[in-house]
Amino acid sequence: MRTQVAIIGAGPSGLLLGQLLAKQGIDNVIIERVSGDYVLGRIRAGVLEQGMVDLLREAGVAERMDREGEVHTGVELAFNDKRVRIALDELTGGDTVMVYGQTEVTRDLMDARQEAGLTTVYEASNVQLHDVKTDAPYVTFEKEGEQVRLDCDYIAGCDGFHGVSRKTIPDEIKTEHERVYPFGWLGLLSDTKPCHDELIYCKTDRGFALASMRSPTRSRYYIQVPLTDKVEEWSDDAFWTELKRRLPADVAATMETGPSIEKSIAPLRSFVCEPMQYGNMFLVGDAAHIVPPTGAKGLNLAASDVATLYKIMTRVYKDGDKDCVTQYSEICLRRVWHGERFSWWMTNMMHDFGDVEVNGTDSQTFSRFMESELNFYTDNEQGRRVIAMQYVGLPYEDVK
Ligand code: FAS
Ligand code: PHB
Predict the structure, then answer these.
(1) How far is CA 253 from CA 130, 144, 208, 247, 391, in A?
(2) Distance 209 CA to ligand 2 centre (A)
């Protein structure tokens, strides 16, 4: 097999990149480890920045999102028995976010790829990258017992945190930055009416909670839990009882509960691999970086990586400008670190660290610092503007 760009991973990064490249006539093949149904079964992000919305429209896959997605002009922070609305549009000169689940984004991209007759190899095993430092890199994998070789010009490692691509960068070349948080998020998806028309991020002395949604009839909720918790220990009733103790009282009093259709615990970490490229192999999305979901940045940072690589590949194949590939990592990392910092900051402000020492500060002192931080940034319009600017997403950077 031969293609121009080999894409490892059929998550949102790989599928969105493949769709954009195809629109420019750039041939690409996606190699995915699991089945398409398995990819769709993962319940993840729910909030899309304007930049990602624009990219999905450019890729020609936004028709259902524009019909079924919800444009949100604000989010709420609830703490110390008060609720502060961050008026995203007023504070940023009109920017908003789109509430539309990652599962639906992935489904739209899969459908578009199939319709375009583009090649995706699902359930490929033993995927390996070769000769990435040369002008003739290639990928090998096994499919139905057959060993397959895919020759290409470039490889996009869109294979997530546990993928194979990042391992291709030698240890002596890469630096991995990591912060693992001492708690996780227990998430529940239910076919119930959302408890509020906007997202509510709650900080309480029992821990963090988030009320989100997927549609007017489907809700997504999270509560902070200890890393030692197991999802099977949490009955639906226990979840709803604890969630109601963390949501604002008036919201909890009227909210609709029901059976979970998905329930899982996600660990929280900040992670960045530098550089994000090695020879003709580029790391994209979770393959290069992970954020705690408190800032709704994970999927959105993946989208801005895709945008940068798409612009670069278009310059290579349309303008014959191969030199611009050296800009990829530097451009991506500037925006990635802003997203990392915001997600780390929101996580520090909104969670209960219990008696865990943080950055050498005892937990009580740290908690006072964070309480002051949250009050300072929400008490005045300038502070709320800082939160709003990051929440809607910083501008994408152009390729020089
Ligand atoms: P993905 O991990 O989605 O996709 C990588 C793909 O590569 C997968 O399909 C995998 O099967 C495949 N793959 C892996 N190894 C391979 C190999 N060796 N060969 C071939 N294929 C391979 N973000 C938010 O913004 N908000 C949220 O609320 C949120 N919640 C999350 C909850 C959880 C439990 C997790 C894990 C992440 C969450 N995220 C959230 C972040 C998430 O949405 C990611 O940012 C997003 O999935 C990134 O997409 P990809 O980069 O495509 O990586
Ligand atoms: C979600 O709806 O899954 C969601 C929304 C915002 C976040 C995290 C998760 O910050």
Answers:
(1) 58, 54, 18, 9, 28
(2) 11
Ligand nearest to the CA of 297: 1
The alpha carbon of 131 and the centre of ligand 2 are apart by a number of angstroms equal to: 39
Residue nearest to atom 7 of ligand 2 (CA): 296
Q: Which CATH architecture has domain 5-69+92-178+270-356+388-392?
A: 3-Layer(bba) Sandwich (3.50)
CA distances, 183 to each of 31, 208, 296 (Å):
33, 10, 17
Domain boundaries defined on the chain: 5-69+92-178+270-356+388-392
Does residue 45 line the site of ligand 1, with CB under 6 A?
yes
What is the token pair recorded at 305?
């990586």
Hey, which residues are catalytic here?
72, 201, 293, 297, 391
Q: Which atom of ligand 2 is nearest to the CA of 295?
A: 10
Which residue ranges have their beta carbon within 6 Å of ligand 2?
45-47, 199, 210, 212, 220, 293-294, 296
Instruction: Indicate the pairing of strand 70-72 with strand 97-99.
Output: antiparallel
Q: Is the pTM of this model over 0.85?
A: yes
pLDDT tens digit sequence for 99-140: 999 999 999 999 999 999 999 999 999 999 999 999 999 999
pLDDT digits (tens, 9 = 90+) for 193-238: 999 999 999 999 999 999 999 999 999 999 999 999 999 999 999 9
